[in-house]
Structures are given as structure tokens and as C-alpha cells.
Write a structure and sequence with these properties.
Elements lengths: L4 H72 L6 E2 L4 E3 L5 E3 L4 E2 L5 H7 L3 E7 L3 E6 L22 E3 L11 E5 L18 H6 L2 E6 L2 E14 L12 H14 L15 E7 L6 E12 L2
Parallel strand pairs: 6-7, 8-11
Antiparallel strand pairs: 1-4, 2-3, 5-6, 5-9, 7-8, 9-10, 10-12, 11-12
């Protein structure tokens, strides 16, 4: 069978066209591949950057927490704190029976040592082996948000008294601030007072005013706005103070044993942030009871 030259030429042309077509397809595929591969690598690089930054931030936070915790442990070493098991039943100055089911601390507190460390120190707040920190007061309400009680820079801050309160820890309503730390240090455990059972298990705090200690009992716990009448202080008369007490009693999340509080009493307002809303504050309010032995 004979094949004409024109047919041979057409076949060759078709082969070249097919070859070009295949080549074009391969090149198009390659471009798509490189685009997809490049995009994938960019996404992986971005993810790696985000992961690295998050790890860096978490590491910094962990180191900050550890530094803050260690700093306050060193401060506690100024005092003798042997643990003593205790489950004795006690009657408070309001006639209520309470049980201390936690380990008590034999607390050899020396205010002169604390004052020598920081002239801003006004006392100490302690609750079993859960909370134990100096109380300081600055010239504003911002310095001790980022400085510990020994003036060291740390995001754990300090437990500090509102500088605007006349009379300090002797005032009718002392307002004391502390950070809500995720490791439950500082005032991180205050948010647990949203539960009545936690309050029943931890009904009091010990607060030292200078070198004199008193037991304070929880009478109200609730959330409030970051700015509001909960933060009232320097009352002009007993009637205004009684109105304030009644307002706090009306806001509490649950009933406590301490309802008959009058303007003759002295109270303390503990304040910290809430974890679900940075514009809200967890408030735990205490009424002053009997002096500590």
C-alpha cells in the first residue's frame, strides 16, 4: 500500500501538534503545581510563625508566673510558717460555728521585717495555705499592677489597697485589689466564691493591719462592673455607709451567716478580674471579726 507524501506530512504535523499539546499541558500542570506547592509552603510558614509566637508568649507567661510565685515564697521566708494539721470547731464573734478543715499555719508574723522590705507595706492577708501575701498601698492604683510587693517588675503584681481610701486598713470599707492569675495565685481563687459550697469551706480570711491581726468573715460574693458603686469609699456618715452595706447584701449570689451587719462594723472589699469578661469584677466582701491570738 502506498502512502502519499502529503499524508506523511500530515501525520508528522499531527505528531508535532500532539507533542506540543502534551508539552503545553505538562507546563500548565507544572505552573499549577508550583502555585499550589508555594501556597502550601506559605501556609505552613505562617502556621509555624503563629506557633512559635504562641509558644514564646506561653513561655514568657510561665516564666512570669514562676518568677512571681518564687518572689512571694521568698517574702514568706521572713516568717516561720510550719504547717499544723487542724480541724477544730470554732465559734466566731458573731455566734456562728465554723470548722477549719484545712491545714492551719503557725504564723510568726513580724510587721517590722515587712516594713523594712517595703515602706509601702501596710499589712498581710492570709487564708489557710491558699492565700498569703503582703498588702501594700502606692501613690496610685496602677504601679502595683505590674510590680510585686518588693518593687520587682512582674505581671503578677501585688495585693494592694486603694490609695484613695482614707484611713487605709482602718477605713469603714477597705478596697483591696489583686490579679486573677490562671495558676490561682494572688486573688485567682476569689472567682471560686461564685460557689456557695466553696464559701462554706473557706468562710474567713486573716488580715493583719500593721502588726495586729483580725479574722474577717465572708458576707457577700458577687460580680459587678469594673466601675460602679461597689467601689464606694470615704462615707460622709453612718447612714450612707449602712445604705452601702444594704446594697452589697442585696447583690450577693447566696445567703451567708453574716446578715446583721451595721454601720458599726468595718468591712473589706476584695476585688479581682473575671476570666469570662474583662469588664466585670469578682467581689468578695468581708466583715471584721475578732482579733487573732
Amino acid at each position: 500500500m502506498s502512502i502519499k507524501f502529503s499524508e506523511i506530512s500530515e501525520r508528522i504535523k499531527n505528531r508535532r501538534t500532539l507533542k506540543q499539546y502534551i508539552s503545553d499541558k505538562l507546563e500548565e500542570h507544572s505552573k499549577k503545581y508550583y502555585v499550589i506547592e508555594g501556597t502550601r509552603k506559605l501556609i505552613m510558614l505562617a502556621a509555624l510563625c503563629v506557633f512559635t509566637y504562641a509558644s514564646y508568649q506561653l513561655s514568657n507567661k510561665f516564666l512570669d508566673y514562676r518568677e512571681g510565685t518564687n518572689a512571694y515564697k521568698n517574702m514568706e521566708k521572713m516568717f516561720e510558717i510550719p504547717n499544723v494539721g487542724s480541724s477544730e470547731t470554732q465559734t466566731d464573734s458573731f455566734g456562728n460555728t465554723i470548722v477549719n478543715s484545712k491545714d492551719a499555719a503557725a504564723w510568726a508574723y513580724d510587721f517590722s521585717k515587712l516594713k523594712a522590705m517595703n515602706e509601702d507595706a501596710v499589712g498581710w492577708i492570709k487564708q489557710d495555705n491558699i492565700i498569703s501575701y503582703p498588702i501594700v498601698v502606692g501613690t496610685d492604683n496602677t504601679y502595683y499592677l505590674t510590680h510585686n510587693a518588693a518593687h520587682g517588675e512582674n505581671n503578677s503584681g501585688a495585693i494592694f489597697l486603694d490609695y484613695r481610701v482614707d484611713g487605709g486598713l482602718d477605713a469603714k470599707n477597705c478596697i483591696i485589689y489583686g490579679h486573677d492569675m490562671l495558676n490561682n495565685s494572688m486573688f485567682g481563687t476569689l472567682i471560686k466564691y461564685s460557689s456557695k459550697s466553696y464559701c462554706n469551706d473557706h468562710p474567713y480570711f486573716d488580715i493583719y493591719n500593721g502588726d495586729k491581726g483580725f479574722r474577717y468573715y465572708v458576707f457577700a460574693a458577687y460580680e459587678t462592673d469594673e466601675i460602679g458603686d461597689t467601689y464606694s469609699y470615704n462615707f460622709p456618715n453612718d447612714e450612707e455607709f449602712q445604705n452601702y452595706i444594704n446594697l452589697c447584701q442585696s447583690r450577693k449570689l447566696y445567703q451567708t451567716s453574716y446578715t446583721n451587719i451595721t454601720s458599726a462594723n468595718q468591712i473589706v472589699t476584695l476585688s479581682t478580674c473575671t476570666r469570662h469578661n474583662q469588664k466585670k469584677r469578682m467581689i468578695v466582701q468581708l466583715v471584721k471579726g475578732e482579733p487573732l491570738n
